[in-house]
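We close this part of the discussion by returning to an individual protein. Part of our work consisted of pairing the sequence of a single chain with a tokenised description of its backbone. No coordinates are needed to read the tokens, only the vocabulary itself. The amino acid sequence and the backbone structure tokens for this protein are reproduced below:
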Amino acid sequence: MKTMGRVRIPGAALLYFILVFGAGFLMGIIRVGFVEPRVGVRYAELLEMPVMLLVVILAARYSVRRFALENSVMSRLAAGLLALAMLLIAEFSLAAGLRNLDPAGYIASRDPVSGTVYLAMLGLFGLMPVILFRRRGKPSEDAALKNKSIRIPE
């Protein structure tokens, strides 16, 4: 079973990276082409963040389920950090190729406000598979929780 987990982690990380990077690439085209000219870089990037947060949540959930990652913090952390490494390599490669910027120059070129939110989003991206982690209780506890009804006082 350990071998299976080691095979699943890179697959889940790659799928997670592809889904989020692909969505980010499409959102970037929309942001730069249509939103930035109207509201400026800072506000365009800030408007994009909630959409990308939703993409990150959905992609993490789908990737973890698709590759049936073990329900452990370490498996999910490994997948999230591996996906983050792939994302940073892709981001820095694009910055170098398209804007002739090294990683430090790319980070320095970001808007101070939206760039800070972007860095926080990178952290969330790397940790999202763990954030979505749910400890599984004993079967009797799970059944008891499902059967409880919420009573609203009158």
Summary: The chain has six helices and no strands. Helices lie at 2-39, 41-66, 73-99, 103-108, 112-131, 139-147. Residues 138-145 have pLDDT under 50 and may be disordered.
